[in-house]
Design brief:
The complex is a heterodimer of chains A (109) and B (112). Chain A is mainly beta and 109 residues long. Chain A is globular and about 40 Å long. In chain A, a hairpin with a 2-residue loop joins strand 6 and strand 7. In chain A, strands 2, 4, 5, 9, 10 and 11 form a six-stranded mixed β-sheet that branches. Chain A is 0% helix and 58% strand. Chain B has 112 residues and is mainly beta. Helices cover 0% and strands 53% of the residues of chain B. In chain B, strands 2, 4, 5, 6, 9, 10 and 11 form a seven-stranded mixed β-sheet that branches. In chain B, strands 1-3-8-7 form a four-stranded antiparallel β-sheet, with no helix packed on it. In chain B, a hairpin with a 3-residue loop joins strand 4 and strand 5. The chains are: A mainly beta (109), B mainly beta (112). The interface between A and B is medium-sized, with 23 and 25 residues.
Chain lengths: 109, 112
């Protein structure tokens, strides 16, 4: 199966940018998703990028894809306390999504 | 909006008990999924169903079974619960041909 790697923790000051990185192994992934999980809740879809794109911007979110290096990143501009959550990278692979371990983002005042 | 509901938010069971976790979605999605989530391991797929009465094993099916008798409902069954099945269980659904999955709130199962 596909391996998806993310760093486990990120601490960021309120108002700064957050960058969450992800590497994956299956180059045939056509869609790559970012999900957010707030404490005690299920996962909600944040954004996604199609594999023929390098970048996608959606309000405060910017997704960068380096397909050659199989590297995906999510940048959150002007990070707020409501952005504290676990963020999952999830490339599409065959019929399913493969999830990384998740990056816990803590926003400090 | 898609709504995926799970029968319980918290569940405590004893070792050896049979456990049923139920998931219902209201958007006529063909695909339904069961995952377990453990710290440091992310989400791992247990079983997947693409139609009524159809099921496919995921990455970690051992110790679990599933049932899909109606399109909107997907049940996860632990035939004989064990302590290593203590985990958060998440259900998801998606439209056929669409990879975007919608998740329920999760059931935190503790097996003592």
């Amino acid at each position: 199966g596909e391996d998806v790697e993310q760093s486990l923790f990120l601490s960021v000051r309120e108002g700064d940018s957050s960058v969450i990185n992800c590497t994956y192994t299956d180059s045939s992934s056509t869609y790559l998703y970012w999900y957010k999980q707030e404490p005690g809740a299920g996962l909600q879809l944040l954004t996604y990028i199609f594999s023929n794109m390098d970048m996608k911007q959606d309000q405060r979110l910017t997704v960068l894809l380096n397909k050659k290096d199989k590297h995906l990143s999510l940048r959150i501009a002007d990070t707020q306390t409501g952005d504290s959550a676990i963020y999952f990278c999830a490339p599409h692979n065959d019929y399913k999504l493969s999830f990384g371990a998740g990056t816990t983002v803590t926003v400090r005042a | 909006d898609v709504k995926v509901t799970q029968s319980s938010r918290y569940l405590v069971k004893r070792t050896g008990e049979k456990v049923f976790l139920e998931c219902v979605q209201d958007m006529d999605h063909e695909n339904m999924f069961w995952y377990r989530q453990d710290p440091g391991l992310g989400l791992r797929l247990i079983y997947f169903s693409y139609d009524v009465k159809m099921k496919e094993k995921g990455d970690i099916p051992e110790g679990y079974s599933v049932s899909r008798e109606k399109k909107e409902r997907f049940s996860l069954i632990l035939e004989s619960a064990s302590t290593n099945q203590t985990s958060m269980y998440l259900c998801a659904s998606s439209l056929q041909g669409n990879y975007e999955q919608y998740f329920g709130p999760g059931t935190r199962l503790t097996v003592t």
